[in-house]
Each structure stands twice: as C-alpha cells, then as structure tokens.
Design goal:
12 helices; Multidrug-efflux Transporter Regulator, Chain: A, Domain 2; four-stranded parallel beta sheet; Rossmann fold; 42% helix; Hypothetical Protein Tm841, Chain: A,domain 3; six-stranded mixed beta sheet
C-alpha cells in the first residue's frame, strides 16, 4: 500500500516559512521548486521537499549572502565523484577491498626501481584526473620507502595532490591502517584534518606475530644475543615472537621452542592488549602462512566476542615476507 505525499497550498507555505506568496512564486519561476505540482484547477501545490528547499534557500541567503542563481547551482548541480587513489608498497597485507567505485588501491613490488615506479604511479593517477593521492608506506624501521616517495613527488608538478604517509607499520597492521583510511575517505572524501587522523591511527595500531624462521631482515640488535644463545643451546627450531606496539616500534617479545606454545602466546598477548583497550577494537586482521587452522581458531573466537567488528582472515601473499620470512602467524588490531 503506497502513501500519497501530503500537498500544501501556497498560503500554508507562506505562513509556515514566513515568506510572501510572491517570493514563493518567484522561486518557482526560477526552477528552484521542482516538486511543485498544479491541481486540476491550476492551483500550485507543494510537498515537504519544497518546504525543505525553501528553508535551504533562506539559510544560504542569510548566512552566505548568495544570489539565487548561485544557490540554484549549489542545490541542483550534478555532483561528480571525488577520485581518490591509495598507493602502497608490497609490505602491506590488505583485507578485502572495501573501496567504492571512485577509489582505487595500487600496490607495487619492492625492487631497485622503486622511485621510478612511484613516479609512474603518481603520473598515471594525476593524468587520469584523480583529485587526491594518498601514498601510504611501511615505516622507516622496515624500509626507506617513505623517503624515496618524498624524493619522487619532488620531481612532479601538482604534487600538492599527493600526500605521503609514513604508517610506522608493516604487514597486517599496515593493511588495517590503510583500511581505516579507506573508511574515513568513504565517510568524508575531503578530509581536512588528515594529520590528526593519521596520528590517531598510529597510536591505535598494534600487531603481535610469530615467525617460524630467522630469515628476516629486521632484528632488534639489543635482543640478538638472546636469539644467538638459544640457537647454540637448542637443537630444535626456535620461534621468535615480535610485536609492533602502539608506539609503533618493533620489539622482540620472546622465543618459543614449539609452535603450540608460540601460537598460545600470540593469542594470549592479543587478548591482553584488547583487554587493556577496554575490550574495544574497530577492526582486526589475522594473517597466516602455514598456520591456517590456528589463525581460523583465533578469528572465530574473536568473532563470537565481537560480532559487529570486522575480523579479517587473510593468507599472507608473501608481500610482507621481505621483512620476516615464513611460516608466520600475525594478529593486528586497531
């Protein structure tokens, strides 16, 4: 059953809105009241949308002193999509793509031609008319890409369109960082306080992970002697556990001699971190390689406790292995 719209005569609008009959007729003549209809007798009839438009017109005249021609353009102009690109490097492990059709993520592999590749990416999106390019990269503790990105944009014109962001993260925590930027862009394509948002996200990002290999590039030097001693004393494969804290620093947490113990510590540490945040998280990603069963178990447990929170289960696509090696299991929250 459909409900007919309530219609009002011009006298009702004039009395309700405090405007004259002549003013309303003039708005109609200018095409500012597209919902206006006429009765069989030729009487003007208006609906709630017309009332809303007249209120907007009066507000724009009073507050912004705009002429009616400008107000008409402002109210009825066709709004085009804001084209936004997010460029990141292969240190990111991303959740499923949540971007709208007017946004895009571009990922490039790490090699000796990073600067050249970045310039190519920037030029491509600038030439396509993208109004904003966010270039979000791993932190300086893991690579020097942020510095290279700054060098790349210095060679370009219109580089004020490009914003270089040092996430201070890597892997799944970088992926969540980007995911949160995506959500913010969707809600407000013209972010004016991006620095505040970025600093807030950096403080909220946390990652704990085990890496069943010592073939990683990043090792806290002050902790290296502990690993070396265990290697000498142990005949079994050791499993180092690291975390990226809210201070965005990579730190060595402990070493386990079995996968079971290591997985349990990752799980317990993650739950302790969530507990310290008042049991609130806005998004979580569990990343794995050769630890699918364990990763799925952690993800399912979190989904039961936080049914309304996005919990991503993502297989490592090896793009973050340039830092840590594999097999691995990591959990990131923000």
């Amino acid at each position: 059953m459909t409900t007919e719209k309530k219609l009002y005569k011009i006298g009702h609008l004039a009395k309700t809105l405090g405007v004259t009959h002549r003013t309303i007729r003039y708005y109609d003549q200018l095409g500012l009241l597209p919902h206006m209809k006429r009765s069989s007798g030729g009487v003007r009839l208006f609906d709630d949308e017309d009332i809303k438009i007249i209120k907007q017109i009066r507000q724009l005249q009073k507050e912004d002193y705009l002429p009616l021609e400008v107000i008409k353009e402002k109210l009825f102009e066709k709004k085009e999509d804001t084209l936004i690109a997010i460029i990141t490097d292969s240190g990111a492990i991303l959740p499923e793509n949540k971007l709208k059709k007017n946004q895009v993520i571009s990922i490039f592999q790490l090699d000796s031609e990073i600067k050249k590749e970045l310039i190519s990416q920037y030029k491509m999106y600038l030439d396509k008319g993208y109004q904003k390019i966010y270039s979000i990269h791993t932190g300086p503790a893991y690579s020097n890409i942020t510095t290279i990105a700054k060098e790349a944009i210095s060679t370009l014109r219109h580089n004020n369109t490009i914003e270089i962001i040092n996430s201070n993260s890597v892997g799944s925590s970088l992926g969540l960082f980007i995911s949160q930027i995506q959500t913010s862009i969707e809600n407000n394509p013209n972010i004016t306080n991006s620095d505040l948002l970025i600093n807030k996200l950096k403080k909220l990002t946390y990652q704990i992970g085990l890496f069943k290999s010592l073939d990683f590039m990043i090792t806290p030097k002050k902790e290296m002697h502990l690993i070396e001693n265990l290697i000498k004393e142990s005949t079994s494969q050791i499993i180092p556990i690291f975390n990226i804290s809210s201070e965005n620093s990579l730190s060595f947490q402990s070493i386990k001699l079995s996968s079971t113990e290591a997985v349990q510590e990752v799980k317990e540490t993650l739950l302790e971190e969530i507990e310290s945040r008042g049991k609130y998280i806005s998004e979580c990603m569990i990343t794995y390689s050769f630890f699918y069963t364990e990763a799925k178990e952690i993800a399912n447990e979190l989904r039961k406790v936080y049914p309304n929170t996005p919990i991503h289960l993502v297989e490592d696509n090896s793009k973050a292995s340039f830092c840590f090696g594999q097999p691995m299991l990591a959990a990131a929250i923000i």
